[in-house]
């Protein structure tokens, strides 16, 4: 939710007006779809790669650095923005063509930008880390006073707690580090939504023609479990070994507006995979409007239907703001650029890091597999229950390469096997269809292949490194700090994580 919202108190009238505006915005979407008012109607748009990368800040001892205001001042680049926690910032990568060798140019530009930002951050005694979850975060770092200064974050925090009526509880049983360890359990409560800030992501955007949106969203949902299994990079929080991709359960619990009674009634959570395959993007906006009360009921003066009647394109500020507070793992995005409306799929399941080349490989794999699935004659989602896709997400996040995922015509299979046998050829085909060069396809898909062959993701490397240090007699706290120091060194060296050695 990146919209700036001033600090304020909301009345019942504010909520009624906002609900009406969101409803009229949903009507406007339906009308724009039926009347072909989106700029990409009837023709696929130029392939563009857009991404957001969330980053953590640490000090020289690898503890969280609560310094994002000072770091952003030092970086002085509008591409870098604040995030929820004072130990977070985000880089927004402007959309670039997704053809020929443009992906390699983007990789070089991202690496240059991050190196420059790291150099400037170091002048404030802080350092940038691309990682899904900072392993040295502890429960005390979730205190309310560590929320970033931007008023929208504290306002969102208050609204979630007002809706919930009680502290947020994290209750997660982890996966044993190895045969010498028992499974660990994190159970803690907090009076802020800052555990959400522990979940640092890679968010990928794909602009699609409105008639193609459903197929792309369904494809993205279908592969979410494979994505997190191959790219897990979030195994530790609060001194506890959790899942390979712990962002999934932590984010689900940290932004839950439901007390136990509403959970028992089956009320839908705001962090949501969904409950069905869709036929049109309208299905998603309609669900958001019908199922979720407003968190930030800030209304504009625009009547979207009147704007359409006058021949204009509505901004749909309320619908977009509301959409930004329903945290789907694959989110629909409505946007207006230069007076033209378009639609995007925003993929939100991936963690940040470990390296720039890993980031680019994760992006290429996602875009390639989605395109390959969309181009198949028989849609995958017609052969697979939606519940199976949802279960795959949690299984892949929990156990990584050791998970068993369901795949049509294959049955239960490990994600590395599935990728090597089925999905890498599909990604190759999809990237070729996008116009990605042979050189770029080989560079990024070879990283995914190497990860599958070695069965080493960022999460696997972190877990192995900590287990080895503990076996050598180090405490958990010391092992986490020294592991993170090694991680930062290897991150800067830039070799993909499947080639990382253990110290």
Automatic annotation (TrEMBL):
InterPro entries: GCL_type2/YbdK_subfam, GCS2, Gln_synth/guanido_kin_cat_dom, UCP012666. The lineage of its organism: Bacteria, Bacillati, Actinomycetota, Actinomycetes, Mycobacteriales. It catalyses: L-cysteine + L-glutamate + ATP = gamma-L-glutamyl-L-cysteine + ADP + phosphate + H(+). GO terms for molecular function: ligase activity. This is Glutamate--cysteine ligase. It comes from the Bacteria. Coiled coil: none annotated. It comes from Gordonia jacobaea. Pfam families: GCS2 (PF04107). Keywords: Ligase.
